[in-house]
Write the structure tokens for this entry.
Amino acid sequence: GAVVSQHPSRVICKSGTSVKIECRSLDFQATTMFWYRQFPKQSLMLMATSNEGSKATYEQGVEKDKFLINHASLTLSTLTVTSAHPEDSSFYICSARDQDSYNSPLHFGNGTRLTVT
Amino acid sequence: GDSVTQMEGPVTLSEEAFLTINCTYTATGYPSLFWYVQYPGEGLQLLLKATKADDKGSNKGFEATYRKETTSFHLEKGSVQVSDSAVYFCALKVYNQGGKLIFGQGTELSVKP
């Protein structure tokens, strides 16, 4: 079945540094990928829609200059948390859909636990 | 805007008990509806889905029926197991927005032996 690989699974960084999270679709091509953020014991909040070859579409209230998204190929999207602060500590999850099938379900990565100290 | 509301957790059941997790939605148009499951420390896995009214999605003993008249998609299982302990998310796919999903707040299920 379709697999989405997310890397790293865990990262600890110091306040003020930047962290890059990768999301890859391993056996399918994805024109569109989605980035979610999940707080402890809460739902997934959609941060942005990542579109291959164009700018990401951010949800209201998400700082685009802080959460940089690049979708350079049909199998890779990256989320960079710039100048991270402790309040950015969270669980980040990406998802992708096979571009050749609109009705195919979204496939999720296993998430990245970011801790900013 | 589109939204999903789930019953609050945590839900604690004994093994072999009957499970219902309520989910209702508001949406423009005719969304597809999904249940996802998240095991501790992992990402989400699709459990089941329904794409139109009166469709029933089913998988691993779980079922949910798309009820347009009550805008609901309640998750049920006749006999839960300890291995079903997880967080369950109801979601809808927003019409005509490239597959974007809106999630409910999640319901934590704990099954005791």
In short: The interface with chain B takes residues 4, 6, 31-32, 34, 36, 41-44, 46, 49, 93, 95, 97, 102-103, 105-111 of chain A (CB under 8 Å). The first strand of chain A starts at residue 4 and ends at 7. The mean pLDDT of chain A is 90.
